Amino acid sequence: MSDQAAPLVVVAIVGRPNVGKSTLFNRLVGKRLALVDDQPGVTRDRREGDGRLGDLDFRIVDTAGLEHAADGSLQARMRAGTEAAIAEADVVLFMTDARAGLTADDERFADLVRRSHKPVILLANKAEGRGGATAAYEAYSLGLGDPIPVSSEHGEGLGDLYDALQPHFVIPEEYAEDDEPEEGEEPPLRIAIVGRPNAGKSTLVNRLIGSDRMLTGPEAGITRDSVSVDWEWRGRRIRLVDTAGLRKRARVVDKLEKLSVADAIRSIKFAEVVVLLLDAEVPFEKQDLSIADFVSREGRSIVFGLNKWDLVENRGSALSNAREALDRLLPQIKGAGLATLSAETGEGVDRLMQTVVKAHEVWNKRVPTAAINRWLEATLERHPPPAVSGKRIKIRYATQAKARPPSFVLFGTRTSELPDSYVRYLVNSLRESFDLPGTPIRVNFRAAENPYGKK
User: Fold this and answer.
1) Binding positions for GTP 2 (predicted)?
2) 152 domain residue, yes or no
3) I need a surface site. Which of 141, 224, 421, 436 has the fewest CB within 10 A?
């Protein structure tokens, strides 16, 4: 193997002015290197920095906003610099403003990026808030693939950006170690173990990998940093992340604990499956529910582990009560995987891993468009949308926008007026009809014509 270091992947952020490119650049380099202001056109020269997202290290390039300009003008020279950055990049992040909607410049420069034949990841920025993800789906019309709703300012959507970037980080053969994945091999399944202090997270990791890798003991709060361990289960590569215990925010006053909690939250955002470890004798405490709700809002797959099961006496009724409580208290992830185990004795840990793998499969599931529209027709016939102010809401067409988690877009008229109860009805119907237990489901609406209707 060569002693030369592997070259960093070069990632360029491009888009029209004032869509938030420099804010994302600063977030990925972890410093305020680029000047940020509401005034468009602040960035003129290319700026480079060492970016990091999860375990991905890369060279990130911030560029001037793309504008249609006359030859020879300052804007034209800025555009030439951006085009050069695209040519030198391995991956292009094309950013739009979900809040402002698409413009002619977005469409013009999406065509420029497309002609570069470089891998493109489409980001719909400023998509925070309830309507942000819905607004992001307008970017589909650019023809650059599935838009990823993000918020550069608030750090939302970075887990999905990580998932989109990761396939572009294949290490060239001359730099690869013997334990690196071969071409076509699945990347490791990323699992974060979370829960309240002293739930048994480190003990579980030690039990799974078969060694005392993590420091454990009766004292709560021993784990401070999130520690990842690579491991294999039934021939499948796994990356386990042990995290610090998560207490109620009001009780976290120590600066070191705040950093530990922030590290644990970051691990959740970059996980594919989150195992929330509960104390089987006192499951579903308020803090457990808060953690589960956060995992769901982040769009991660979740599995509940009822730990210390060896201490439970009436197991039949305890399991029945736990399942009833889970579906009642967390209806947004109804049917989530629930496994009983004892990290101390090893009982049930293999069953937990089976539940994790099944949850991961559901999280990745895609449903054919034809099947979704057959479902939509039957669902609307069974329970039509209510009339609002005497006018009927119409839903005409549906498709799955993405997986991880399953996300659907429904096209119709006046859909923004649908009551929350009817949206919940649609989500529950999707979950039941397409066998999607336990995973977060995203349903977004667009007031637009059927994009396939005229074909």
Assistant:
1) 195-202, 242-246, 307-310
2) yes
3) 421
Are the CB atoms for 189 and 273 separated by under 8 Å? yes
Q: What's the pLDDT tens digit per position in 245-274?
A: 776 554 444 444 455 667 778 888 889 999
Phi, psi of 14 (to 5 degrees): -130, 160
When divided into structural domains, the chain yields a total of 3
Structural domain includes residue 180: no
Residue 416 CA to residue 395 CA, distance in Å, equals: 11
Binding-site positions read 15-22, 62-66, 125-128, 195-202, 242-246, 307-310
Q: What distance in Å separates the CA atoms of residue 63 and residue 61, rounded to the nearest whole number?
A: 6
Residue 349 and residue 377 in one domain: no
**Helices in 181-236 by DSSP H: which ranges?**
201-209
Can you give the CATH number for the domain in which 426 is found? 3.30.300.20
CA 7 to chain CA mean position, Å: 27
Longest dimension (CA), the chain: 81
Residue from 287, 207, 289, 307 nearest 245 by CA: 287
Mapping DSSP to helix (H, G, I), strand (E, B) and coil, where does residue 153 land? Answer: coil
Extract the annotated binding site for GTP: 15-22, 62-66, 125-128, 195-202, 242-246, 307-310
335 shares a domain with 203: yes
* 286-334 pLDDT per residue, tens: 989 999 999 999 899 999 999 999 999 999 999 999 999 999 999 999 9
CATH number at residue 91: 3.40.50.300
